[in-house]
């Protein structure tokens, strides 16, 4: 049942479409079984899972909002390692790659490539083996960072490199489409929101927090954002597990997933063959422990 692949958890990888995906969308995103299983508790969520979630959210926006302003969700591969580390003499190549990455998001809704209908643009970022989210308000020309981690690091040390490059390139892209807020996107200061549910000890669930922020944020200030989530502690741990289950179910069973019926059948067959609940729980725990060990090995290897 389990397929293998190189892990992309919170590392910057420029992945091609995976073979034998378990979730696959008409708009281009796909996730293999091994990566989808990182939504199990205690595991670092794979980047491709966030990409698939972004695809689902964008699809739902286009079918529910009609002619109104929409939210646009981008994938984690918009800002690649090559783009971030490009030299000054390679700026045109950097911008060309950035635009090409943006275009992959508009396969299902090409008319939105001008961003004229977009109110909020969501960009999940991978940096320092950590996920966080930056959201651009294209009506106000402002931007905010949503990050669960309260590490105490400064804006300059933790965010400035990636955010500066993203703002510069995104502003240029908007200007090419004559967007009225293009200049503001590049020049206005980005706000780092101090989230009440921020964490100091949790280094595992940043991908889940990004998915939650993508789903829940509507452009409000923190004071006016009517969203209740537990502070760091046992209640938050339980809620994160619930969110993992919720998002796994949503993506696997979503109408946009062309493998939905196959997954339904496999789930039924697995349940009918494994009626011993205690044994099933033991099997699940063994798989989670195994994946934790794999992720720990990958982390050590990447640090060398």
Automatic annotation (TrEMBL):
Entry's Gene Ontology molecular function annotations: cysteine-type peptidase activity
Record's keyword annotation contains Cell membrane: no
Keyword Protein biosynthesis: no
UniProt keyword list: Hydrolase, Protease
Domain (Ubiquitin-like protease family profile) ranges: 72-217
InterPro entries reported in the protein's UniProt record: Papain-like_cys_pep_sf (IPR038765), Peptidase_C48_C (IPR003653)
GO biological process: proteolysis
Pfam families in UniProt: Peptidase_C48
Family in the record: Belongs to the peptidase C48 family.
Name of the protein in its database record: Ulp1 protease family, C-terminal catalytic domain-containing protein
Source organism (scientific name): Artemisia annua (Sweet wormwood)
Lineage of producing organism: Eukaryota, Viridiplantae, Streptophyta, Embryophyta, Tracheophyta
